[in-house]
Fold these 2 entries.
Entry 1:
Amino acid sequence: MVGDYRIKMIVSAAAVCGACVLFSCAEEAPTEPPDTPPEPWGYWEEMDLPFTAVDVQALKRDLAGGTWALAVENVDSSEWRILRYAGGAWRVEAGTDPAPMSVNNFFAVGPDDIWVVTMFCEILVWRGAAWEMVYEAPGELWDICMVSADEGWAVGEDGLVVHYKDGVFSEERLPPGATAYELVFSGPSDGWAIGSTGTLYHWDGASWDSIDPPIDVNGVQPLGGGACRAAGDRASYAAAGRYDGATWRYELLPGTKAAVDVYFPRDDEGWLFCSAPRSLTRGGARVAKVLHSRDERWRVDELPFECSPLYYPVRAADGALMCGGRQFEGDVVILRYVVYDVAQTRGKEASAVAVGR
């Protein structure tokens, strides 16, 4: 049963104001999910990249459902490349090569409308011919997200928020002004920013409000209507949280140190991307551990090699779930999850496009 190996807690809406009221908590210490499930649900495999990458800084979907990546090719000269996934393969997007120097993050509206933010406080746009600087901010920007071709947001240091709409840029600050390093929207009136202290900020179409979760948040998945899933940590465990706009629910998952990202393609199945406990390190670096939930049962996914914690989960238009990571004894990679067909599990015949079907 689910309660056999996890701690489940329900936190009242008072947590939004800083209080944390626990309504229920498992009395017994949880045990770990099994490392070797009797009937594997699938496996992760490495994808071919058009060059040897030294960093994968982001994986994102564009507004039409296409999948993109921002990667660094050369550790000495820091050559940024924007990759596009199509036809089951990754390639460098024609015309955008090379990307601007010192890119912190990006967002592709489409092939001829790609936005980047740089460590030089700039916002640049590719519109099919050349990179153009369209805005210089008063501080460094860490992430950018477009909600349409005519509107988008960027966040950065000291709570800086830059809003673009219909060709006009404006600035504001997040309350209480903590640096925000990740930004994601489900629509023009539902956006989330993660602060450097693990705090969440929500955009409801009118203002940015501070949301104080019961866990230290590292990753967030918007669900629409002010709801979200969150990945983080609490009490030296990885934590999976869910917020319905008023109440937080979260579970602590042992055998892990922290959760860095989360992705649920549907309500009854999803992934929590974690780091293993401090005792499981390689050269002082954290080891990735991926927890897979189906019908409220958690299992540990097998990875093809030891690597650092995996980030940036994204589901491609063909249904493939992908994320980025770094091998301890090799290169930076993008991994794809391959799902066993339920009717063919014992024969281990697989399909890479079955995620979220």
Entry 2:
Amino acid sequence: MAAANTTATVTAGTTPIAVAVNPMTNKIYVANNGSNDVTVIDGSNNTTATVATGTNPIAVAVNPGTNKIYVANNGSANVTVIDGSSNTTATVTAGTNPIAVSVNPMTNKIYVANNGSNDVTVIDGSSNTTATVRREPIRSRSRSTRGPTRSTWRTTAATTAAATSR
């Protein structure tokens, strides 16, 4: 006999826009773009808690190994880092208009795509220090002296300071 599927409706904040799950803790994180917070849902009983974020949270990612949650805040150009064990937060500066976030749990690196500044912020999950990866044109001449100048791209990184805690 197959197990019955059940559904439950859980109230989140205003304009929920993204969701991520920590399979190790059975916690679900919902980014609420309109209320500038994250709803934390306990998957075992559907109780909720609310954690404040920056302006216009738009994306959320979880590192299940460290129990850290990363929220890209599109309107405030930063990432809210939530400690999943206590729901305390830290803020890490990102580029302009961060729009996506992804975690590599093997390296504890977090990647934030910044739509407004056309770059990627790389966060070191152990220290919350950042590096910015951007594409910069390099001008070079074609082999023909009469030919057009062609553009190639290179990646550079600039390191910035660690996060501030709330």
